[in-house]
Structure to design on (302 residues):
């Protein structure tokens, strides 16, 4: 059942602007709050960052080989006056940046995160969308208190399935055969799809009273029945969690490193998560709320 369906009714002026415009207007009006969420997300997920770092030590060697990333972490010793020792230093620094990219991508995408805290942030996003937000910490505590049990299970689901998917990607792409490349590519798509499912799941926890099994069922159904929109969301996710941070970090300059630190500490993660939460809310309004109304009508008829 949908929670607080009445909260989703916006004023005529807000509806007239359209959902796309309303997303940016609501986000801009709560820009400071979203920046605060971004900072708190990174702070509260320090344990998740440590887990993701452990994942990087386990899986990065295979992924580097699978995606032929050696050129990003090695510098030929015969270039200019670079000595072998200096080359090793540069290579280790680039490898460290690659690990930072992996860790931030895994945590920001919610594949590895502290689940109960994430439901608190999801409640903040819900209240911003509905215009019912009172305070950042007030909303955060409500989401955390009401959903921590389901979020804890979802957290372990994310960690376990992420490990399986990454292992599959690494294994099949390292086969270096046509079949291996095809299957590995499929698992890359599954990886992005799972990011969407996890984000849908955390947002459904704070917008519905469904049990966890039905939450994941609905998350997968949302992905299938709105495939075109979710394809666009997948591209956005890949752009902000994979492509942009990879380019910024692998450019290996102080300017791009500074841009990366600012964007992913204060802006990008909260805005991408809010975008996914906003879209999930619209899906809940359209499908879950309609199902509830139909159920109420049937109960009245009987």
């Amino acid at each position: 059942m949908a929670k607080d369906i009445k909260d989703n009714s916006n004023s005529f002026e807000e509806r007239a602007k359209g959902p796309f415009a309303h997303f940016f207007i609501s986000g801009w009006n709560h820009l400071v709050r979203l920046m605060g969420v971004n900072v708190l997300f990174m702070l509260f997920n320090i344990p998740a960052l440590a887990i993701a770092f452990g994942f990087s030590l386990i899986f990065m060697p295979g992924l580097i080989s699978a995606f032929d990333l050696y050129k990003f972490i090695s510098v030929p010793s015969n270039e200019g006056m670079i000595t072998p020792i200096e080359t090793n230093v540069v290579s280790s620094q680039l490898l460290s940046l690659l690990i930072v990219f992996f860790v931030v991508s895994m945590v920001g995408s919610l594949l590895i995160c502290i689940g109960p805290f994430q439901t608190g942030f999801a409640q903040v996003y819900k209240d911003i969308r509905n215009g019912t937000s009172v305070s950042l910490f007030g909303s955060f505590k409500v989401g955390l208190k009401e959903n921590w049990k389901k979020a804890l299970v979802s957290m372990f689901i994310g960690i376990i399935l992420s490990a399986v998917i990454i292992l599959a990607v690494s294994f099949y792409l390292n086969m270096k055969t046509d079949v291996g490349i095809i299957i590995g590519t499929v698992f890359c798509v599954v990886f992005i799809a799972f990011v969407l499912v996890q984000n849908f799941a955390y947002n459904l926890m704070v917008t519905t009273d469904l049990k966890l099994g039905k939450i994941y069922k609905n998350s997968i159904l949302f992905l299938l029945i709105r495939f075109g929109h979710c394809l666009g969301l997948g591209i956005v996710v890949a752009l902000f969690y994979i492509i942009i941070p990879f380019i910024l970090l692998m450019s290996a300059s102080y300017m791009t490193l500074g841009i990366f630190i600012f964007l992913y500490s204060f802006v990008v993660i909260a805005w991408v998560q809010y975008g996914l939460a906003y879209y999930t809310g619209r899906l809940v309004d359209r499908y879950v709320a309609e199902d509830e109304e139909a159920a109420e009508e049937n109960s009245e008829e009987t």
